Amino acid sequence: MSESHDTAQADETAAWLPYGIAAVKVIFLLAVFRYFATPFTDDVFGEELLPLPTWEWTVCSITPGLLIWLARRPVDWATLSTERTVLRIALTFYFLYALAFSLFKGGWTLWPAAVAALAGHLGILYLDGRRSNYGE
Q1: Helix pair angle (55-70, 84-104), 10° resolution
Q2: Phi and psi of 11, rounded to 5°?
């Protein structure tokens, strides 16, 4: 007998997953560049040409959580096993920056970034726990 279409797809990883991983990495590198661009322009040109990040930091911090949410199937989550360290580093960087500037600079627009990064960390913990409960 032949497998049904649903059963055959359940064991395959999503075709978009490598692109999602690459997008998260590129956005993280752009965020790190953005973070260092403000003091760099202040040192070189004597004024900040790029102000401190605001809403774009929230967009950057949403991307790892979005990848985690889209790759929540066990097959896709297993594919992300080698990328979880990068996801954790990116989420920690986004969270610490957003939290520090929300608390000390009064940047209320960075609170959603802190929440999104924390949600990403919780998503990793939840999916890791779910995987260990299934005995994989």
Answers
A1: 150
A2: -95, 0
